[in-house]
Design brief:
The complex is a heterotetramer, with two copies of chain A (about 325 residues) and two copies of chain B (about 210 residues). Chain A is built from eight helices and 14 strands. Chain A is α/β, with parallel strands linked by helices. Classes of the chains: A alpha/beta (about 325), B mainly alpha (about 210). The complex binds adenosine-5'-diphosphate (2 copies) and magnesium ion (4 copies).
């Protein structure tokens, strides 16, 4: 395990410490050492945006704390959901009285902890509503959408929810927009090499040289298939064949494209893949409104990639084009 | 004597904490075969924190279980925090205000625990989780109680069923959690959560039985 | 070699193609397919900023094309300097008549190709001046500064040069600021695992499990030492002990800190290292004015890190705080 | 005959191109031992592009060398583009406007090439680069010329020295380029650039000598 760390059981604490110091102008600590918030949060009159989850996905989750994005994040151990208390404390850190939209991914632990946190918040009169991201197509068939995991599509959900809240929408409107965002989002990942949780010390699954795991999850959850490593063009086609019909995405649609590396795959390869994805979309008459290519939602040092598409209407476009400022995604407003 | 005073909560909590601490390595080893090898570490962290919090002084059973579930729910993330958090929260509530724990009260504690855990877990019997231990154990306890057995006999019935339930996980394919990654290959190994659940239920049984003597 | 590519000898062309498509609002092609420019370049009345170098360092170099940063980039093959003609074409793409500051790194190939390109430009009356980054401390002793390689410090040089040009400075002023930036910058890298050039197909050097290469270059150039892998705190101390006395950085100094991963090292580890670096600097009374932590200058999928410090005066601070917008580094103005 | 008409440039360029193409694999293999194994690929790319550009028609020597250096400088990056670009640019300039290449002109071509390459390279004799072939080869040619030898004899002297220079790199430690990474371990293997340089100089020698017959 070739890692730059100190004590394996303190990686999350030290990362959080370093993160807060590096982004002191943007991020504040809270009374709970595992809850970070946007410096300006809670923002008077604005619905609070909260998320949380296991660590090891940088920039997710704390990298999306910032202006017009997420207000507070509950930070779990590596690949392990944060306790209910942390979600609850994140709600408190984000709530200005207008309520909190908790936008998180569909994992058993997170579902349980958020559920409990909402019960805790109920006693405090904090209105919390949730949207649960389930964009990962290969994780369950189309008739069991509620079993699908959330992956990189969560970022687009935060972007939309964060922008909507910043525009002054109320809690129900923010929830509706974020739900619409994820309902229109489909993702799929390919794994090329595994990753090791520092405390465990070695990868707890394997991908052989010359193979790839099709439909892998963000913690190495098994995919649809393990097959021979393909070219970028073949991978693009394979993913497109699965996610395009699933929504479906049709000729004339405007989309946001997000290609996220899983950690160790260099951006060069992501752009090569994007080049092939763009050709497929253009061929089908699907128009790319905005594109993100980079390491946006990773799995420690796993090699591989997630492709995410979101179909846009005018509301979603306005949200995607909205200015935001956070470590993981800073953009000037577009129009 | 067929009831245990709730004022003796400390005995039970100390026994639970010790059982987890003693089996930390064993639970992690089981988890290591088809999971990520940290179940003992996760459980030990929560139970040891609880031991530190409780300190040396006596504690009411309901209060002691509350300390445990509060720590599980506030400090232990993942699935164990909420699952065992709910388990002990339900138990704590079901014996709150009681002078003693008798066969009916403990039956109430068990059924509440089972229901709350099922409620939050979303897993089904047969998915190779702690439910495969908890559900049959609770049912065996209720059957014994309905059949007019003594508190001690009910506990023994629960213990036997818990063990059987735990062992039943060996031949199951994991449907939830990390081990589900392995599909068919998850067969042949005990489930770590079912093992810790059996340990906890058996510790309740022997400790209550001893205090009844 | 677990890579998402098509033909190994076309990776650069396909990456460039994908990059231009993904950032169509920011980046334009030029007549030379290996020269990309900021969409708005040449900008009337502004000194042009040009750089270039081998590929495989994403976001460097093309990721720093954008507003108030680099105007045009010459794109070489993987780890191989672009031909003179490309630098020359980049000069033409960037020049608005106010001259061009060519800010590049100290590598034999780049030196030769830039030198030739300047001769070509001379015939065209394009005034080109250069600053050659040499921030990599371990690559040569302090009395041979001109032999030191340029590494991640180049980014700070572009940031300063780009901001200065955007503020309206003339060519000499831009060159002076960029030169001051690099004169006040020191870097050092640690390698934990090698990388493979796609056309070669396998890594052409090795770092054994449990070892690290101290002072490694951005193409795997040999370092000072190969030793047992250390903790983050020890690595921070080891680098600090070498780069702090070299400038030297002293108590009371304001600095910019840049921690860049080399590709496969997850951001979590970079923040852990930053946490340790911050402690050392704070102990020494050195004040962090601005910090960048992420994959800013990589070496394909190498694991490892570069630590860069730049001592700031008021002019450099103003440049670092200046707004900029490019794929590798988007920031709102700070004050 | 002790001079070669420059109008016959095509013969020399074709020979140079063929020499590189024929040795593509060999040059890459040498580079593979202590470098990244692409020297033959890099050289072949430039020389083959030049062959395509020149096509079938005859060409003046200076013009032909210009085509070659323009391609090296515009299409071939890294170090080879500028180094051999400068080499052939200097050669092209030194025979520009001449009717024939005689011993003095070729001496001038060689010395200009050496100086331009040294100027841009920054490497020193003994650094295990193409300079370890080029410098002694040029010096041997000049010595032979100063000693009043014939053009053909001067070329033979150059050839012999080029080969000796190339072979001398075997025992050197690389000081520049990728192979310098290996330090002491770079010893024992020929330098790829010195090998291609020797090939180029020997191809000049034999082709000129043949045309003189
Ligand atoms: N949704 C669930 N319902 C019930 N039990 C679960 C669920 N998810 C996981 N488990 C239990 O969790 C155990 C593993 O716990 P542990 O190793 O502590 O957590 P993790 O898998 O996060 O490392 C499994 O053996 C299984 O019994
Ligand atoms: N600065 C330099 N001066 C002279 N020759 C050099 C220099 N740098 C590299 N070389 C030559 O380049 C040769 C390698 O060329 P090549 O393999 O084509 O390039 P690369 O090393 O970029 O892969 C070496 O054998 C050496 O002779
Ligand atoms: Mg775990
Ligand atoms: Mg586990
Ligand atoms: Mg090369
Ligand atoms: Mg080479």
């Amino acid at each position: 395990m070739q890692k730059i760390i100190n004590k394996p059981n303190e990686v999350v604490d030290e990362m959080v410490e370093g993160f807060v110091k590096a982004h002191a102008g943007l991020i504040s600590k809270t009374d709970n050492p595992r809850v970070l918030k946007y410096k300006a949060a809670p923002i008077e009159g604005k619905v609070g945006i909260v998320t949380g989850g296991g660590s090891g996905h940088k920039p997710a989750f704390i990298g999306y704390i910032g202006k017009n994005m997420v207000d507070a994040v509950a930070v779990g151990e590596i690949f392990s959901s944060p306790p209910a208390q942390m979600f609850y404390d994140a709600f408190k850190a984000a709530d200005s009285g207008k309520g909190v939209a908790c936008l998180y991914g569909n994992y058993a632990g997170d579902n349980m902890n958020v559920k409990m946190a909402i019960e805790m918040a109920d006693d405090d009169d904090i209105a919390v509503k949730t949207v649960v991201a389930n964009d990962d197509v290969p994780s369950a068939p189309g008739d069991q959408l509620n079993k699908r995991r959330g992956v990189a599509g969560e970022i687009l959900m935060w972007k939309v929810g964060g922008a909507k809240a910043a525009m002054g929408a109320n809690l129900d409107e923010v929830i509706a927009a974020a739900q619409k965002a994820i309902n229109n989002t489909r993702s799929m990942g390919i794994g090329l090499s595994p990753c090791a949780i520092p405390e465990v010390g070695h990868p707890n699954f394997k991908i052989e040289e010359g193979k790839m795991e099709v439909g892998i999850g963000h913690h190495g959850e098994p995919g649809l298939d393990v097959c021979a490593l393909e070219t970028a063009a073949q991978i693009a086609q394979r993913i497109a064949d699965i996610i395009l019909p699933d929504l479906p995405f049709n000729s004339g649609d405007d989309v946001a494209v997000l290609i996220s590396g899983l950690g160790a795959t260099p951006p060069m390869e992501l752009y090569i893949l994007f080049n092939d994805v763009e050709k497929i979309l253009t061929d089908k008459g699907i128009n790319i409104h905005i594109a993100y290519v980079g390491n946006y939602f990773t799995s420690l040092e796993m090699a591989g990639v997630t492709l995410t598409l979101m179909k846009l209407d005018d509301e979603l476009k306005a949200c995607m084009d909205y200015e935001c400022d956070c470590m993981g995604l800073t953009q000037f407003g577009r129009n | 004597m067929s009831a245990v005073p709730t004022s003796e909560g400390k005995v039970i909590l100390s026994a639970l904490i010790k059982a987890i601490q003693d089996n930390k390595q064993y639970l992690s080893d089981i988890d290591g075969l088809i999971g990520d090898g940290d179940h003992g570490v996760n459980m030990n962290k929560g139970f040891t924190l609880c031991g530190e919090e409780l300190g040396e002084k006596p504690v009411d059973l309901s209060e002691g279980l509350k300390t445990l579930y509060m720590i599980l729910m506030t400090k232990i993330g993942g699935s164990m925090g909420p699952l065992y958090g709910m388990f002990f929260k339900a138990m704590s509530k079901a014996c709150k205000g009681k002078e003693t724990v008798d066969a009916v009260t403990f039956g109430e504690m068990l059924i509440q625990a089972k229901e709350k855990v099922m409620d939050i877990s979303g897993a089904q019997l047969g998915d190779k989780t702690l439910l495969d231990c908890l559900i049959p154990a609770e049912e065996a306890y209720q059957s014994a109680l309905d059949a007019g057995k003594s508190f001690a006999e009910c506990l023994t019935a629960m213990s036997t069923a818990a063990e059987k339930g735990r062992d039943s996980t060996k031949n199951l394919i994991a449907k939830v959690g990390r081990s589900s990654r392995l599909g068919e290959r998850s067969r042949g190994v005990l489930d770590a959560g079912a093992t810790s659940c059996c340990l906890i239920l058996q510790t309740f049984a022997t400790t209550l039985q001893e205090q009844m003597k």
